[in-house]
Design a protein that fits this description.
about 200 residues; mainly alpha; Nucleotidyltransferase, domain 5; two-stranded parallel sheet; 6 helices
């Protein structure tokens, strides 16, 4: 218990030192990743995807991310009808026009109503609690790798209560739950240096 407390205190101290050394860059990274997310909600199942990372989320960069998302959505068999976004000033009329050109309607969330975009807000909170608050991020490339790894875990392995404890990208049939699994048949895979553990029964 004491060692765990000392470790957490040490990590927080390093984060504070890092923030003081490069406060503006670190804050910009946090803002773009945790507040200015572009959330495309799919019907029935929300599957987050990382579109880009930057320390300077200017309007041109946001427009390029919109074009990237639009290109990916154009390949879907069933078209997307709505885009739900917040009221950040970086989401300009040009941003909306990118999606309007493909027949999508852009819907802005009401003022001070985080529940209106509940899927995106919940995912941002999950990323912070389970990943970013437990790691030291030193540069953009590291942030990209960490977020990509976590999103892959989130979509392919992490259980979701709304999906009956299955992940969104489940590729295999759901196995029947085992009340007393054999511990010798249990296999663990570590991700992000052991921050996340994935378990499965050996075949």
């Amino acid at each position: 218990m004491a060692l765990s407390f000392l470790y957490v205190a040490f990590v927080r101290l390093l984060q504070l030192i890092r923030l003081c050394r490069n406060e503006q860059e670190e804050l910009a990274v946090e803002v773009v990743m945790l507040r200015h997310e572009v959330a495309v909600l799919r019907r029935q199942v929300a599957r987050p995807a990382l579109t880009g990372v930057t320390a300077n989320p200017i309007e041109e960069w946001v427009l390029q991310q919109a074009r990237n998302v639009n290109s990916a959505l154009a390949e879907r068999a069933r078209p997307v009808r709505f885009l739900l976004r917040d009221r950040d000033s970086k989401f300009t009329a040009s941003f909306d026009e990118v999606f309007h050109s493909e027949g999508m309607r852009s819907i802005r969330t009401p003022v001070r109503a985080p529940r209106a975009n509940a899927f995106a807000e919940r995912f941002v909170g999950t990323v912070r609690r389970e990943c970013l608050d437990r790691m030291l991020i030193f540069h953009r490339r590291q942030l990209e790798v960490v977020l990509s790894e976590f999103i892959d875990h989130y979509n392919s392995h992490r259980p979701h209560r709304s999906l009956d404890q299955t992940p969104p990208f489940l590729m295999l049939p759901v196995a029947r739950p085992t009340s007393h699994p054999d511990a010798t048949q249990l296999r663990r895979a570590d991700r992000l240096g052991g921050l996340i553990h994935e378990y499965e029964l050996a075949a």
